[in-house]
Design a protein that fits this description.
Length: 297
């Protein structure tokens, strides 16, 4: 896809009158590999006055003692309790009933629509950020007939992603291969679908202009105060704790990989991920409607 077009879908006409209605809130889904900066991007987007974030909601029931960003356990958070009340009244579902990974389409759509409808009702916001990252969840959401979903593909250079795993004791070869596999699969899926691509380096080095382009793609006017993202009251769950609980809005480049990886590891990562970085496979400047060919990081 050489440019992002028709990103904002038109509301459907209400058959009962002349007013327009929207089937569901707009879901901005952040797709990325782990350790790519998805929590930071989530925080920046959801600092807009018309946006709310649920965070990595796909992990809601996998980690039952997860903390909300308000630093309460999810089940004890007043916001999520209110969301549950709406879900119970409208869909006869509780938060613990949610099957965000339901295999059949009917259950998947009903449970996720219940969740997002509850969040919209309680927050009063019509744009909801879901930073769950997983490509299978992205596919289910995008292909749902009941949900209005805009994917954001966040891309970080492979050296930074792989090193984040290496310093946790993981094998760099495995994660280099996973990087290439994940990037190619995501781009192949999104190639002919409206979406936004964001490069981590652009977000960190030029957050003002990068975020402005992202908000334009979402269909909202950029608010410079979004850069003052830290320390706000939020209720997104899971994700990078250091970022979620930060009181400092300074955005810093994580380039520890430069010293942390050996020369041979850098070369190996570059070679194992080369296929995913062939010029023309993807572009970073889609919002400006032109391809940027990347030969190296």
């Amino acid at each position: 896809m050489s440019e992002v077009t028709n990103i904002i879908s038109e509301p459907e006409a209400d058959p009962k009158g002349d007013e327009l209605s929207i089937k569901s809130p707009r879901i901005v889904f952040i797709r990325s590999l782990a350790h790519s900066g998805s929590t930071l991007l989530d925080m920046l987007i959801s600092s807009h006055p018309d946006v709310v974030s649920v965070g990595e909601v796909v992990r809601f029931n996998k980690y039952p003692n997860s903390q909300c960003a308000c630093q309460r356990i999810i089940w004890d958070c007043p916001f999520w309790k209110a969301v549950e009340e709406v879900m119970r009244a409208r869909f006869d579902l509780t938060l613990r009933d949610l099957q965000q990974w339901a295999g059949d389409r009917e259950t998947f759509e009903r449970h996720n629509l219940a969740l997002f409808d509850g969040v919209r009702e309680v927050s009063g916001k019509h744009v909801i950020v879901d930073s769950s990252k997983h490509i299978n969840r992205l596919k289910h959401l995008v292909e749902s007939e009941q949900l209005d979903v805009l994917p954001i593909h966040l891309i970080r250079n492979p050296l930074g992603v792989v090193y984040s795993h290496v310093r946790r004791g993981d094998d760099w070869r495995y994660h280099a291969r996973q990087y290439a596999k994940g990037l190619i699969a995501t781009q192949d899926y999104l190639r002919r679908r409206p979406h936004i691509e964001v490069r981590y380096d652009d977000l960190v080095n030029d957050p003002n202009n990068t975020l402005a382009r992202v908000m334009e793609g979402i269909g909202l006017n950029y608010d410079p105060d979004q850069l003052n993202w830290a320390g706000r009251t939020r209720h997104n769950c899971n994700g990078n704790r250091k970022v979620r609980y930060s009181k400092d809005s300074t955005i810093r480049m994580d380039s520890d990989w430069r010293k942390g990886l050996t020369r041979s590891q850098k070369l190996g990562v570059s070679l194992l991920t080369l296929k995913s970085r062939i010029p023309g496979r993807f572009h970073y400047d889609a919002l400006r409607g032109r391809v940027r060919k990347v030969l190296s990081w």
